[in-house]
Write a structure and sequence with these properties.
Shape: elongated
Structural class: alpha+beta
Number of strands: 8
Number of domains: 1
CATH architecture: 2-Layer Sandwich
Distance between the termini: 22 Å
Order of helices and strands: EHEEHEEEEE
Helix content: 10-25%
Largest sheet: 8 strands, mixed
Number of helices: 2
């Protein structure tokens, strides 16, 4: 995602967009599960002034379905994200003992990126059930003049 020049955008609109994108991702994942509900936080934009510049971070996870169902959800994401305006930047295995399947995707229209990782039970971790973790992050935006970023 190009972050050279932050766009001026109302903080509440980016939060709402983050919630809408999370709902869309949940629709693609399409699993009945224990959902750690989506929740956003206002984050920093590197060294930029936190009174003017911000990004929205939205982290959530899914637990409960079987490993096979979670793997099928990852396959659906790989197939359906490009059909929904996302460009897959990476799709592979983490460089860890567990080798978790992950994908990174960018949506230039919405100015968001997503990192999704499937953490499976493994003898190399204390995980007893699979977990699908989602990190949805906006590009850096500038709050309109007179509006607080909320950071």
């Amino acid at each position: 995602m190009n972050e050279d020049e932050p766009t001026v955008k109302d903080v509440s609109k980016v939060k709402r967009q983050s919630n809408d994108l999370s709902r869309d991702l949940l629709g693609i994942i399409n699993l009945r599960s224990d959902l750690d509900p989506p929740g956003y936080v206002v984050g920093l934009c590197g060294d930029r002034d936190s009174e003017k510049f911000y990004r929205i971070n939205n982290f959530w996870s899914i637990a409960g379905p079987s490993v096979a169902d979670m793997r099928a959800a990852m396959d659906r994401l790989v197939t359906k994200l490009p059909e929904n305006g996302w460009e897959i930047a990476e799709n592979g295995r983490e460089n860890t003992q567990v080798k978790s399947h992950y994908l990174k995707a960018n949506n230039e229209d919405s100015k968001f990126s997503v990192y999704i990782v499937l953490r499976e039970p493994s003898p190399h971790s204390d995980r007893t059930r699979p977990l699908l973790s989602v990190s949805l992050v906006s590009a850096c935006h500038q709050a309109p003049q007179g509006q607080s970023t909320g950071y």
